[in-house]
Amino acid sequence: MTTPDQTPPENIQGDAAPDAPRASSAGAAGGRGRLAGRAAIVSGAAQGIGLATTGVFCQEGARVVMVDVDEAALAAGAASLSGKALEVLPCKADITKFEECEHAVKLCVEKFGRLDILVNNAGVTKDGLLIRMSEADWDFVLDVNLKGAFHLTKAAVRPMMKAHWGRIINVSSLVGQEGNAGQANYSASKGGLIAFSKSCARELASRNILVNAVTPGFVHTRMTEHLPDPVRKYFLDKIPLGRICEPVEIARAILFLASEDASYITGAVLPVNGGGYT
Question: Which positions are annotated as active-site residues?
Answer without folding.
Answer: 186
